[in-house]
Amino acid sequence: MDAEDTLLMIPGPVKVAPRVLRAMSRPMISHRSAEFGKIYDDCRSLLQEFFQTQNEIVIMSGSGTCGMDAAVGGVIGKDGAILTISNGKFGDRFTEIGNRYGKAVPVSFDWGTPYDPERIEAAVFEGCRAVTMVHNETSVGMVNPAREIGKIARKSNSVFIVDGISSIGGNEFLTDEWGIDIAVTGSQKCLAVPPGLAIVSVSKKAESALVPNSGGFYTDLLAHLKSARKSPTQTPFTPAVPLFYALQEALHMAKEEGFDVRRARTTRLAESVRAAARALNIELFPVQSRYSQYSNTVTAMKIPQGITDDKLRGGMKKQGIVVSGGQEALKGKIFRIGTMGVCSEGDILRTIQTLELILTREGVIERPGAGVEAAGKVLLG
Ligand SMILES: Cc1ncc(COP(=O)(O)O)c(C=O)c1O
User: What is the distance between the alpha carbons of residues 359 and 306, in angstroms, rounded to a whole number?
Assistant: First the structure.
C-alpha cells in the first residue's frame, strides 16, 4: 500500500478535507495584524455555535491536553482542590493534572463502567473548587452524563469543567443548557483540522473563579481571555497561524453542512458501525446503563476470539486502513473505530468490508458480508 493513501479511521487525528489542507498553505501573516484578528473573531463566533454557548471562546496553540491543563490550573491554582470523575484514560488525566497543581480527589469507576451519580454526589466536599468529567471517554467509547453531573457541580457551587475533546460536534453537547463552565475541545477531532489547537469556552462564573498568576504561564486562561477581547483580537503568544487558517475553513465547511446535520451524520455512521459489530458477533466494549450511552464519535469493540490485536489491526493497516487499539490495560483487548468530522459512508463501508475479509481469513467468521449489509441498512435509513 502507498503509505500516503491511508484511510485514517482512528478517534483523532482524523481525515482532513483537501480544502482545509489548502487553506493551511496560504502565506504567513502577522499575528498582530487586523487580518489575523478577523480570522480569530470569525472562528470564535462560529465556535460559540459549535459549542452551543454564549460563553467566551479562547483558542490556544497546543493539543487538547493544553486546554485541560489551562482549565484545571486556572481554577485550582497552586493549592486548590478538585473532584475528578473518571471511567477511562482521559478522566484519569484530569486527576494527574489536578495533582500537578493542587490536590485532585478522584472518584474512579472501572474503565468503560458507567458513572454512579449518587457516589459522585456523596464525594463532593467542602472547598471543592471544580468538578471535572470527560463527556466522551475516547478510551472506552462511551458518553457520560454531563447534564446530571452539571446539576451536582452547581449544588456545590463548583466550577464545572468538561472535556468535550472527542465529543463536541459529534455527540449532543449543550454547553449552556448543561451548565458547563469550561468546555474543551481539540482541533483534530470533530472539527477535522490537524492537531495543534485547544479550544476552550469559559463562563463568567469560571472567569471570576480563575486564580490570577497561579496556574501555568502559557496556559493562563486570564491572559488568553484578555487578548481575545483586544481589538484586533490577539493571542498572548505567537499562535500557530496556519492552524487558524485551517480552523476557519473547517468551521465554514461544517457550517455549510450544518452543525446539526454533521452531528446527525456522525451518529448514523457510528450506528452503522455498531450494527456491523452486532452482525459479526463482535461485542461492544462499554457497559450500558441509564447513565451512559455509546459514543457517536468512537466505537470500542472487544477483539473477537480467534484473532489477535496484531493480526486484526495489522491486517487492516496492510490494506491501508488504520484503526486504534486499546490503551493501557485495554491494550490487546479492544479496538476502536472513529467516525468524526468528514468521515464518509464509503469510509465506513470500506473499513467494515476489510475487517470482514480479515476475520474470514483468520477463520473468525465463515464468510464476509453480514457486517456491510447491516451497516448499509442503517446508512440507508
Ligand atoms: C477525550 C479526550 N481527552 C483528552 C485527549 C487528549 O487530547 P490531546 O491528545 O489532543 O492532548 C483526547 C485525545 O485523544 C481525548 O480523546
Answer: 9
CATH architecture of the domain covering 29-255 = 3-Layer(aba) Sandwich (3.40)
pLDDT tens digits, one per residue of 172-200: 999 999 999 999 999 999 999 999 999 99
| From the candidate CATH numbers 3.40.5.50, 3.30.200.20, 3.40.50.720, 3.90.1150.10, the one assigned to the domain spanning 7-12+257-380 | 3.90.1150.10
pLDDT of residue 1: 66
The alpha carbon of 376 and the centre of ligand 1 are apart by a number of angstroms equal to: 30
Mean pLDDT of the chain: 97
Contact (Cβ atoms closer than 8 angstroms) between residue 301 and residue 277: yes
Among 165, 197, 324, 330, residue to substitute to test ligand 1 (most atoms within 8 Å of Cβ): 165
Beta bridge partner(s), residue 284: 301
User: What are the distances in angstroms from CA 198 to CA 87, 111, 210?
Assistant: 22, 25, 18
d(CA 166, ligand 1 centre) in Å: 7
CA-angle at 86, arms to 84 and 88, nearest 5°: 145
- Separation in Å, CA 333 to CA 4, 270, 306: 28, 20, 12
Residues 337-364: tens digit of each pLDDT: 999 999 999 999 999 999 999 999 999 9
137 CA closest ligand 1 atom index: 1
Return the best residue to mutate from 90, 173, 299 for the ligand 1 pocket (most ligand atoms within 8 A of CB).
90
pTM: predicted TM-score of the whole model, two decimal places: 0.98
Q: Which residue has the cell 453480514?
A: 370
